Amino acid sequence: MMRWKLALAAMAGLAMTALTATAADAAPGYTTAPARLRAGPGADYPTVARLRPGVPVQIFGCLDGWAWCDIGVGPDRGWANGRFLAADVQHRRRVIVEAAPVIGVPIIRFDAGPYWDNYYRGRPWYRDRGRWAH
């Protein structure tokens, strides 16, 4: 019984760690073209910021297939289309689909509730978050 409780506590701790990725957990990357930082992985989510090409970003993880990645840019956190992201691999810039597996970018999932609670309270569209909960 005690082992089961310890295992459950360890799993809960890992889950909380996954939800609170920090800059230390992120891989450095760049935007490759004008891009929008979105409040979720899709063009239908609100725009958090507009990004110019060449902007340094922190890549926390990507959806399976690298189509959308959770990134940090300065004080902002959000999702960018993977087509517009790259990272350096052995001193050469590579598109994220090639670079991510090499530099250790994890495959993650998106859960709008906790993500929006952590990063978007106070944004004008936060009160309508149910509209984007998929």
Automatic annotation (TrEMBL):
Top-rank lineage group of the source organism: Bacteria
Gene3D superfamilies (alphabetical): SH3 Domains
One Pfam family this sequence matches: SH3_3
Keyword annotations from UniProtKB, A to Z: Signal
Signal peptide (UniProt feature, chain positions): 1-23
Span of domain SH3b: 35-85
Record-given protein name: SH3b domain-containing protein
Protein's organism: Inquilinus limosus
